[in-house]
Amino acid sequence: MSITVEGPIEVPPGLRNVVVTETRLGDVRGDEGFYHYRQYSAIELSRAKTVEDVWFLMYEGRLPTAAELATFSDTIAPLRVLPAEVQAALPAIAAAGSAFNPLAGLRTALSLLAAARELPPVWDADPVRRKADAMLVCAVTPTILAALYRLREGLEPLEPRADLSTAANWLYLVTGQEPTEAKARAIEHYLISTIDHGFNASTFTARVIASTGADVVSAVAGAIGAFSGPLHGGAPDRALASLDEIGTPDRIDDWVRAKVSAGDRIMGFGHAVYRTEDPRSLMLRDIARGLGGDLVDFATTVEQRIVEVLAELKPGRNLYANVEFYAGVVMSLCDLPRAMFTPTFATSRVIGWTANILEQSEDPKIIRPSARYVGPPPPVAVPIDRT
Questions:
Q1: Catalytic residue list contains 188
Q2: 324 belongs to the catalytic site
């Protein structure tokens, strides 16, 4: 897409509804409650395919054949193993700070990986090398995050297993137990559904950095920084914490009204794009019901009543449960600790980030918007003395 303009263009705050480029990777149709990866419904892919299938699709533009999937999976498996330099640094990274910050640790470890493997700027790399670097970053991200968690808990990190899928490996690396097929598949549904989602803040950040010609890890590290904000990827554990605060069904109304009265955001509800129910939330609610249990029953009761009360207090806003609400429920049912909810999201979204980085690296133009200056009018003479 090429548009020539004379002078600055006024755009809405947050660049809302501003089209900044063209992409072949997918789109979000907020009014329809629909989003897609390439030419396929993301939800249908989540229900029918594996993470490896969709990873291949995002990179190659088509679903793999059985032979291609086997080759792709065999290529990924050894990439999950961390270089010795990164393994040696993980204990210090995990111990840093008074509180566990897995995304900060991931940024640090990936930066070391880039140095150890001498990842070149995408500007200097050919498409084959760019893709290889992207696959490496995606493959090691779960290994790093799980190792940091286990080290912080006083446990030994585990080696990834070549016989397990991406989803099953994640649960194994974090919990130390090989997951049941039902739990591995439940997490796989979630991982696929969160691989990509339009030009969200972290994806746009990754593309801005990639447009400078920087290496893949630099772009991913920037995306992680954007993603770490509670208004972006940091809500699954907060949504589950809301269920803890509510406690019992009879407290739902008072809790919601108090939150709205105080001007607080209700985590897990509302979305910047969707004006209908979030299709990811609908799918995850079905997955949660399939797993069953008291937590699921309580969550569905809370969801229904919160939507009703919000419709009363904020008429016309169309506020429904978003992906974070049931994501926390599903991850909890699959034995993941709350500290690893947002990192779980990161293990899938890194595939979308790198797909966007690869696409952006095909464009030689740097992303360089302008800002409108609103400070004191210049020029003001610089004072010479200090009296």
A1: no
A2: yes
